[in-house]
Amino acid sequence: MKKDDILISKFIGNTPLRYCDALSTRYHTNIFIKEEFHNPGMSAKDRPALFMIKDAIAKKKIKPGGFFVEASSGNTGLGISLIAKKLGYRAKIFVSQSCSEEKIELLLKAGAEIEICENSNGLHDFNSTQFRAQSFAATHPNTYFTNQYYNTQNIRAHYKTTAPEIWEQTAGTITHFIAGVGTGGTISGVGRFLKEQRSGIKVWGIEPNGSILSHFLRYRTLPTNTVSFDSIEGIGRNFVPGSFDAAAIDHIFQVNCQETRHMAMEYYTQTGIMTGFSSAAVIASLDSYVSKMCFKLTDKVVLFFPDHGSRYISKLYKGSAHQSIASSNITSS
After folding, report:
1. Which of 119, 130, 127, 47 lies closest to 83 in space, CA to CA?
2. From which domain of life does this come (predicted)?
3. What is the pTM of this model?
């Protein structure tokens, strides 16, 4: 068995699905949390990182010692950095100015080279993480741009691993799947698989106010006027990624940053669990929209928590009365 196969079979994936008493009681249904921060890189992005790296190596697109290059808000970059290092490669990660201090520190510890860019507005913007990552890969030998926004392995990773896990963990009784939408890989891969099992399962995405994906999902066109979207790290886009499959998603709700910050702290106060930024956005959607759609007592709702709140102390918990407690409980689950 190859080293990368050992990684995925023993360490990446097979994360727990936890019944959440607090949210189930609040919304009068059965709510479960898919806790992806149990992966080695403490995020769901380890899954597509491994699939993209395995695919590139199998197709001989990179030689040992070369650079895997990615544009990332941090989590995919960290997954790529950790796996690349273990397999004898290097990583160069292009992050935007909004990347949290904690993620940058983790990337450096993982041995990644980092470049901080002005934004992550897509390949059409010369100052974006995507454009600069692609440009670097195109002008340097033995480099491979994993390009999570357009790499089919992003969707495939969640179709082949995340979704079957959820299906098995709920014994096929899941009724709703709710996740933040960034590259679109998670919700597209999970949504495709679940709807193949039972078409009536609801697949709902969450994005920040001002992001364009909900408009695209509804009208299949881009909005004529775009605005800056709320800064909720990891989700929201002003372009449609190639890894976004509209056919796999029923609806996308929008939440604002203030609601998300408030919900992160409220959930921590109630449960002692620090959520990641996009995880808090998913919880915020329950108050803003989803609960109004009247869950049934028998429903089984799975919320996707892609990473841990320890990566966002400076953004979600800094300055609060709970910051020192949160810092000491950095591995809480």
Report:
1. 47
2. Bacteria
3. 0.90
CATH code where residue 87 lies: 3.40.50.1100
pLDDT in tens, 59-71: 999 999 999 999 9
What DSSP designation does 2 have? -
How far apart are the C-alpha atoms of 298 and 314, rounded to whole Å?
38
Structure tokens that stand for 105 in this block: 């520190």
User: What φ, ψ does residue 322 adopt, rounded to 5°?
Assistant: -100, 0
Query: How is residue 297 annotated by DSSP?
Result: T
Say whether both 118 and 172 belong to one domain.
no
Nearest-angstrom CA–CA distance, 2 and 322: 44
Asked, for residue 95, whether it belongs to a domain, the answer is yes
**pLDDT tens-digit readout, 144-187:** 999 999 999 999 999 999 999 999 999 999 999 999 999 999 99
Q: How many domains, the chain?
A: 2
> What are the residues whose beta carbons fall under 8 Å from the beta carbon of 121, sequence distance 6 or more?
127, 128, 130, 238, 239
Same domain, 315 and 187: yes
Helix 46-58 vs helix 3-10: crossing angle, to nearest 10: 160
Q: Give the dihedral sign, CA 260/81/112/243.
A: negative
Tokens 């292009």 -> residue: 94
How far apart are alpha carbons 56 and 31 in whole angstroms? Answer: 38
* SS3 label, residue 17: strand
Domain, as residue range, for 238: 3-38+160-320
Token digits of residue 275: 């959520």
Identify the burial level of 171 via C-beta atoms within 10 angstroms of its C-beta, where 0-12 means exposed, 13-18 middle and 19 or more buried.
exposed
Task: State whether 50 and 34 are in the same domain.
Answer: no
In whole angstroms, what is the distance from residue 70 CA to residue 120 CA? Answer: 12
Write the CA distances from 287 to 26, 33, 319, integer angstroms: 10, 16, 25
Question: Around 223, how many Cα atoms within 13 Å sit in the side-chain half-sphere?
Answer: 15
Tell me if 47 sits within 8 A of 13, measured CB to CB.
yes
Q: Round to whole Å and give the CA distance between 271 and 259.
A: 18
> At which of 145, 176, 211 does a domain end?
145
